[in-house]
Specification:
Blueprint lengths: L9 H10 L15 H10 L6 E4 L2 H14 L3 E4 L5 E4 L9 H15 L10 E4 L4 H13 L19 H17 L2 E4 L20 E3 L18
Helix pairs in contact: 4-5
Length: 224
């Protein structure tokens, strides 16, 4: 049984259409709906022998409670702030390896799903910080936003108004805490048919780990 997030069910449904004839009947069942309805019904069902959940920490606690009612095992993958660490030796040579390290930094903005390796913070050795960030910020500034059906688009919109508002709230929190905006930092206004889309500029902050924007998962794809 697979229940996708109610905001983003389409990709798994398209995949199921593509591979459906390869699977025996009943092997894969997709259930759509809100977490409080379909998700809770699945997690509390006595017909379920194991639960695997990826999502927020508060919902993870609920899932653990549901699993305990039926004494079944549960696997949880919850919030985090995946740091990428760049030591000085990544810049020993201005070569493909250094370029790949910078690409790894920029992937925070190009990762559009729930991916464990999506970088949400970067810890960069002070001896290479200026050179590294100059190159990295140039790449971030060059990221093209637009219609996801356009092959030249690099990132699309947020999945929902709720997510966009949450990110904008954390951008404001970061500024209020004293984090320095290194590039972008606001809602993206693309004009035309896309003007009302839920677009957020890929943003990089500089700050320290006591700040909420460097500890909370809500900005996992947007801030450093």
């Amino acid at each position: 049984m697979l229940k996708p997030a109610e905001q983003t069910p389409l990709s798994i449904l398209v995949l199921a259409e593509l591979i459906g004839d390869l699977l025996p009947p009943g092997v894969l069942n997709i259930v759509n709906g809100y977490g409080t309805e379909a998700g809770k019904a699945l997690a509390t069902s006595t017909r379920i022998a194991k639960i695997a959940f990826t999502g927020s920490t508060p919902v993870g606690r609920l899932i653990m409670g549901y699993a305990s009612q039926n004494l079944i095992p549960v696997t949880l993958e919850l919030g985090g702030k995946s740091p990428n660490i760049f030591f000085a030796d990544v810049a020993d040579q201005d070569d493909a390896f250094f370029d790949k390290a910078i690409e790894g930094f920029v992937m925070f903005a190009l990762n559009r799903g729930e991916v464990c390796t999506c970088p949400s913070r970067a810890l960069i050795h002070e001896s290479i910080y200026d050179r590294f960030m100059q190159r990295a910020l140039e790449r971030v500034a060059a990221i093209k936003q637009g219609n996801p059906l356009d092959p030249s688009t690099m990132i699309g919109a947020q999945a929902s108004l709720e997510q966009m508002d949450k990110i904008q709230g954390y951008l404001e929190i970061g500024r209020n805490e004293g984090a320095k905006v290194l590039v972008n930092g606001a809602r993206a206004h693309l004009g035309g048919d896309l003007e009302d889309g839920y677009y957020i500029q890929p943003t990089v902050f500089r700050g320290h780990n006591k700040m909420r924007v460097f500890r909370k998962k809500s900005l996992a794809r947007w801030c450093r």
